[in-house]
């Protein structure tokens, strides 16, 4: 019997350039062939609320022993979007950034050099773009993935502009922007109840996202033929934290199952090797790293702590889960890298 190896979780912030060495170190450990572990991962180095932490015995949820490999691993990369503009100016930036004719006026080096056109500039309030630094960081994240020979086969994004821009720049850095189109998945949008107007009313002001037509007009490389798992109209405007967990899990499971079935069919038809891998990328929001992986990896929903967990997930933070065998339903964390370094 193979002895399970203990893998200590780290807290690497996937943000460039402040963590240049850390990013490369994280990815090197993540995909170095001698670093694969199927352990009951013991957490020994963090005081934060780790993504797959069991607070009763202070270990990660147990992972089943690997079954005979019948196909290469399917990996899901989940990345929070890069730095958003309203972190600096709240919603007031919209008033300053457009003149009376709605022409964009870049009043600060923090702002991006250009901004997408849309039906109403007021829509930027609930659906802001990235900062200039955020765009650069997303691009450099793609470069780092390319340096580590990490290819992405499918890219899914929340309909939020900041997520689509992150996906676009990352794929540019990865040199995949001409061959890989972004699939816009409304089901990956964040917890809708956070969009309540105030604490005394149940009415919500959901963002008006850019349509596929608008995205294409703004030169975003999206998959216009992708059939979404869930439409915006299907997402409850007053969902609970548990509802949000369930929505995230349902959408994630549906997407992964579809790709897994396609891969199995390709193997059976001899179109691909049993050792080929499949990499799927989600680019969404802070809580996505928790809600899309929690149940898949054997954990229970932590609805009462979702807000607290999300506050520790920085821009461009990443987590990776994988499944080594299509005969097993359990996914495992490859590594976790979702918290800020202590400063």
TrEMBL record:
<protein>
    <submittedName>
        <fullName>Uncharacterized protein</fullName>
    </submittedName>
</protein>
<dbReference type="InterPro" id="IPR051710">
    <property type="entry name" value="Phosphatase_SH3-domain"/>
</dbReference>
<dbReference type="Pfam" id="PF00300">
    <property type="entry name" value="His_Phos_1"/>
</dbReference>
<dbReference type="InterPro" id="IPR013078">
    <property type="entry name" value="His_Pase_superF_clade-1"/>
</dbReference>
<dbReference type="InterPro" id="IPR029033">
    <property type="entry name" value="His_PPase_superfam"/>
</dbReference>
């Amino acid at each position: 019997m193979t002895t399970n190896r203990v893998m200590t979780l780290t807290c690497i912030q996937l943000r460039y350039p402040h963590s240049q060495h850390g990013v490369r170190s994280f990815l090197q450990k993540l995909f170095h062939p001698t670093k694969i572990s199927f352990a009951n991962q013991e957490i020994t180095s963090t005081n934060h609320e780790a993504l797959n932490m069991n607070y009763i015995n202070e270990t990660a949820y147990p992972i089943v022993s690997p079954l005979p490999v019948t196909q290469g691993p399917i990996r899901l990369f989940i990345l929070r979007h890069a730095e958003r503009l309203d972190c600096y100016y709240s919603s007031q930036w919209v008033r300053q950034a457009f003149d009376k004719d709605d022409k964009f006026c870049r009043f600060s080096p923090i702002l991006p050099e250009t901004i997408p056109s849309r039906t109403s500039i007021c829509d930027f309030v609930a659906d802001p773009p990235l900062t200039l630094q955020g765009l650069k960081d997303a691009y450099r994240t793609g470069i780092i993935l390319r340096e580590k020979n990490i290819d992405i086969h499918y890219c899914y994004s929340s309909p939020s502009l900041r997520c689509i821009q992150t996906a676009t720049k990352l794929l540019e850095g990865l040199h995949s922007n001409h061959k890989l189109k972004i699939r816009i998945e409304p089901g990956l949008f964040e917890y809708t109840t956070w969009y309540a107007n105030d604490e005394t009313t149940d009415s919500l002001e959901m963002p008006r996202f850019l349509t596929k037509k608008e995205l294409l007009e703004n030169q975003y490389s999206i998959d216009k033929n992708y059939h979404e798992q869930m439409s915006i109209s299907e997402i409850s405007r007053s969902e609970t934290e548990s509802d949000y967990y369930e929505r995230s899990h349902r959408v994630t499971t549906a997407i992964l199952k579809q790709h897994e079935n396609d891969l199995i069919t390709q193997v059976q038809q001899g179109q691909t090797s049993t050792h080929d891998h499949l990499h799927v990328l989600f680019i969404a929001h802070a809580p996505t790293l928790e809600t899309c992986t929690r149940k898949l990896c054997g954990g229970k929903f932590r609805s009462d702590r979702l807000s607290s967990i999300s506050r520790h997930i920085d821009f461009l933070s990443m987590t990776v889960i994988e499944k080594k065998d299509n005969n097993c339903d359990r996914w495992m964390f490859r590594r976790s890298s979702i918290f800020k370094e202590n400063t």
